[in-house]
Write a structure and sequence with these properties.
The chain is an alpha/beta fold and 209 residues long. The chain contains 10 helices and 5 strands. It has 2 domains: 135 residues, 3-Layer(aba) Sandwich (Rossmann fold), CATH 3.40.50; 61 residues, Winged helix-like DNA-binding domain superfamily/Winged helix DNA-binding domain (Arc Repressor Mutant, subunit A, Orthogonal Bundle). Strands 2-1-3-4-5 form a 5-stranded parallel sheet, sandwiched between helices. Helix 7 packs across helix 10.
């Protein structure tokens, strides 16, 4: 088995490598520190699975996931995050991920997730499986941020961390006008009126570190 671990923190990558090295068959494990490196590696190598951090520098994990799936649609991806699954899991599964796991999960759960996905299955917790089975993603009790598109959600997170419209435009390679339009949609969809309200909402719902 050949595994690619994508995380911008070297300590995290090494820790994940040590955990997955305990799998049977002595898997070959490589690392990548950002989205561009992930895409370059999957273009030039064949992997059985990618373990991808959702919080990557530059391109977000969601953006990398979508680009990765456009390059190699059948390559399974396990998304790794510090955030609770109720905030992100359904969004990443819709984007093509095969599973979602939090960084505070037990090492054995990571191994179980990788093995299950490599055997052609999805990996979700029993709690998330129940939500999916009962149509949770379409539930009327969804939080305001869950109505945002993936790009709007990305801009929302960047606004919440204090980045200006110009900084966001530069980082996402968009025009200032386009980012301003996204910001206006975010205010409207979420019934918020200022950047400080966005930040307070994000902190309250544990959407930013």
């Amino acid at each position: 088995m050949k595994i690619l671990i994508a995380d911008d923190h070297a300590v995290v990558r090494e820790g994940l490598k040590q955990i997955l090295a305990e799998m049977s068959g002595r898997p070959e494990i490589e690392g990548a520190s950002n989205g561009s490196e992930v895409i370059e590696r999957i273009k030039n190598n064949d992997y059985d699975i990618v373990v991808l951090d959702i919080s990557m520098p530059g391109k977000s994990g969601l953006e990398v996931l979508k680009e990765l799936k456009s390059v190699k649609p059948k390559l399974p991806v396990l998304m790794l995050s510090i955030y609770p699954e109720e905030q992100y899991a359904i969004r990443v599964l819709k984007a093509g991920a095969s599973g979602y796991i939090t960084k505070d999960s037990a090492p054995q759960e990571l191994i179980t997730a990788v093995e299950k996905i490599c055997n052609g299955h999805k990996y979700v917790t029993p709690e998330l499986a129940e939500r999916l089975a009962t149509g949770y993603s379409e539930d009327s009790t969804k939080l305001p941020h869950e109505y945002l598109s993936d790009r709007e959600f990305e801009v929302f997170k960047m606004l919440a961390t204090g980045k200006t419209v110009n900084e966001i435009a530069e980082e996402l390679i968009l025009s200032v006008k386009t980012v301003s339009t996204y910001r206006a949609r975010i205010y409207e969809k979420m019934n918020l009126n200022s950047r400080s309200e966005i930040t307070m909402y994000a902190i309250k719902n544990e959407l930013i570190e």
